[in-house]
Amino acid sequence: MLRLSSYAIFSTRLKNGGYALLDGLSGAMDIISEDLYGVLRGRQESEGYHRVFFDDGFFLAELQAQFLGRGHLTTLSHEAERERLDATARAMHERRQLSPHFTIVLDTGCNYRCVYCFEKHLQHGHAGWRNTASRPRPAKPNGAHLPSTGCLYYSRIKP
């Protein structure tokens, strides 16, 4: 007997129709029809998230094989599926501890003005930081300069 994965997640209706079916354990995502969504979601709500069972002939053979392979359907019990999740999480944590990982997030709003920057033409929607920084700044009544528009450096440092 087949069971809908305890980690099946349904999206809201998509713009072009249908729904996204995601599996929180495998990471698989498939677009399903509104009819199939109605059946799966309806059974999930009426029978409980961990107790949606299907007979072998319920799905077309091709769809059944695809959903089994991608994790939307399973032959495992809820408890066994939970154990698989625990084992996967444990393995990921152990692997992550073997070596540190760093994430570098590039931002086109950067104000460092590095000479080797590859995104100067994208910064602040201008042709480059040189144009932004060289734009004349209007003077305040007391003679101090106002910040140049579009330049984060001048916006963050008060005169």
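Above is the first protein from milestone M3; the second protein from the same milestone is given next.
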Amino acid sequence: MKPEVNDWISFLPLLALTLLTGCDRPPEPPERSKTETHAAAAQDGGRMLATDVLSKYYELLKSGRTEEASRLWTPGERAGGIQRSLRHDSEYERWDVRVGRPGRIEGAAGSLYVTIPVQIHGIRRGGADVHLLGAATLRRSNDVPGATAEQRSWHITRIELR
């Protein structure tokens, strides 16, 4: 038996009501792809990615994951940088870090550098309050042909605190 036109016409109001039910709310934003996320990070020149690396470094140190933390230093500075940080960490009963807003990215000889302010407040073993101010410098390779993903990632080259 073939449906008649009247059957379809009586069905249309129900179809319209069903379709219009979800129209009062805005559509869900699409999930950002990795490419879009990297593109957004590139708009600020990657400064926030450098800040993330520095924040992660201090989180790893505080949780005792020094091997992982050491990998966030540039290879030539890895041993010395992590040793200075560990010596500093052992002096404190507890400490907290504030990572500031990154400065402008500077370029030199195929590399990019950014300086990020750092503030540490700690309680030394024995009870003395300590406030240190300084800056961390991070480096990454410029986007040049042949540079590996590791070379294009931000790494700590220096942390100076006073």
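Note on the second protein: The radius of gyration is 27 Å.
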